[in-house]
Amino acid sequence: MPSDKEMINHLIDTYSNLQRIKEADDSLRELDYQLKIVRAKLESFGIVTENLDMNK
Questions:
Q1: Residue 54's pLDDT is what?
Q2: Rounded Cα–Cα distance for residues 27 and 21 (Å)
Q3: Of 24, 26, 38, 56, which has the fewest CB atoms closer than 10 Å, so is most exposed?
């Protein structure tokens, strides 16, 4: 289980990433970039992300 400091750090990262998306000149481009980063982190832990994508 993560420590309190690790959870706080994660929440600060999440908050700052959402702020970056909100303030970006091209929000969709920034969102795609943030998703790419999270996908790479998940895959580095062996988590397959293919089935996590939402389909329209």
A1: 84
A2: 5
A3: 56
SS3 call for 17: helix
Those residues with Cβ within 8 angstroms of residue 31's Cβ, 6 or more apart along the chain or in another chain: 21
Contact at 8 Å (CB) between 9 and 1? no
pTM over 0.90: no
Which of these, 15, 19, 41, lies nearest to 30 by C-alpha position? Answer: 19
Q: Residues, the chain, total?
A: 56
Using one digit for the tens of pLDDT, what is the confidence trace for 4-20?
999 999 999 999 999 99
Q: Which pLDDT score, from 0 to 100, does residue 17 have?
A: 95
Q: Residue 14 and residue 34: Cα distance in Å, rounded?
A: 10
